[in-house]
Hints:
Layout: E1 4-10, H1 18-34, E2 39-41, H2 59-74, E3 80-87, E4 93-100, E5 103-109, E6 115-116, E7 119-120, E8 133-136, E9 139-145, H3 156-163, E10 166-171, H4 182-194, E11 197-202, E12 204-207, E13 210-213, E14 217-219, E15 225-228, E16 235-241, E17 260-261, H5 267-285, E18 291-294, H6 299-312, E19 317-321, H7 329-342, E20 345-348, H8 352-361, H9 373-394, E21 397-398, H10 404-409, H11 430-444, H12 451-455, H13 475-487, H14 492-497, H15 502-513, H16 516-519
Helix pairs in contact: 1-2, 5-6, 5-11, 6-11, 8-9, 13-15
Amino acid sequence: MRRTRIGIAQINPTVGDLRANTDKILHSMAKAKQRSVDLLTFPELAITGYPPEVLSSKPQFLKQTQESLRQIIEQSWGIAVVVGFVDGPDDSYDAAAVIEDTRLVGVYHKISLANYGELREDRYFRSGSECPIFHIRDIDMSVTIGGDIWLQEEPAMPQAHAKAEVLVNIAATPYHAADGYSTERKLADRAANGTVIVAYNNLVGGQDELVFEGGSLVIDAEGAIVARGKHFEEDLVIAQLGSEALTGHTTPTTSPLPTRLMEKPHRIAGVYEALVLGTKDYVRKNGFNKVVIGLSGGIDSSLVATVAVDALGARNVVGVSMPSRYSSPASKSDAEMLAENLGIKLKVIPIEKAFSSYLEMLADSFMNTEPNAAEENIQARIRGNILFALSNKFGWLVLACSNRSETATGYTTLYGDMAGGFIPLKDVPKTMVYQLATHRNVQAGKEVIPSSVLSREPSAELRPAHKDTDTLPPYELLDPILRAYVEDHLPIDDIVAMGFHREVVTQVAHLVDSSEYKRRQAAPGIRITPGDYCQGRRLPITNRFRE
Length: 547
């Protein structure tokens, strides 16, 4: 194999925006040609965006996809390209087109369709079966999509990989906070075990509840990472493969192509970047310019506002303080301080008049009863009403501030603090909320989120001396129980055996199981864990089973 420059165009497409996605692909091709790239890859379903879901069965969508592919083929003189698209029209396949010098060399159909967690590809695509070798630019190349790279049981797959000098894998792998370096290690093992160069192109960007982090890789035949793409942003990664590749070695050039080993962010930094990217893309790709957030002075709304500013800029974030008779002076001043630190506009709309009117209106109906959650939730719903009034009037997207610990246990008010068009912290445990806030302050080298917010005991402030621990176990205890019960699917007895009190575990399990109806009504939000505890872990709402 001659010395070959391989490029990985790690792009952020938008599902259904075929024209913009095609323009982005053509721009990357032109840029790669200028840098003498021989073979350029794009992520899984780059033309259509991922996942297209039921769009993949629409005839007009498939027709426009083919037109986009035709444009890419026409512009491919002087370069070879591997690009993901939906292949139809009779049956839809998650496919990769292999193109060289204005010629469609062949098409690969994904074999191992993702059917786990949030992904249900087998609902929309048929599975492929062929594993061809493509001879491109004097390279014997095998192409795989997503999880196909791990397949060994398909008869043709090991043989195809054994004959290949380069294994191209185009993927759309959702970001998960717990992944760490496991994908990199598995890809490195795959390269070394097969003595094959691996070029891994992972999608970047946010799509509804999913975030794709990029971090594309070129790995030599000994399992060493030659180049790594940026995380959570678009990138064009170029590596030069040397003439010794056939014997299991590749040589990244030193100049003008220095070794590209972008640093992978540590876990908390990675989660924060995922929240920023997911929020930015959800807002922008859905046509919103500004967001509005209820600022209580608490940790959750403070973090959501900070993420929103990092995603959209201060001028596009509006905070609304809605104090009640139970709001402490510290909470009100912290909301003001946060807004000042972030440079965002803060509206102050007290809710006392509305709350008093509700109580007066309901006085006869509530006569001879003690105050309880009904009066508390009226306040939360008044605030939700105000935020959506502003949203309707000005076209702003409401960002809700519920976190995973709250939505899992139902410690959140339907049509109140749950109300919103998007929930950035939906999959973030409360204990991690504090870690993320601390990380952001350390990153800034100053207090962005006031230290008083971090140190104050969590409270919804819906009644006098109200504390979260009046209803829930301390979050340091709650979150590991939730992880064991919701994420790891452990039975109560096993969780108790881990050292937790049975009474507490049973309480948490009951809260989770009885709050299914709330989770079904939650707005979309960013996922950072492998399982989808809102939809992937669906319980019957009408359900009398208890452990």
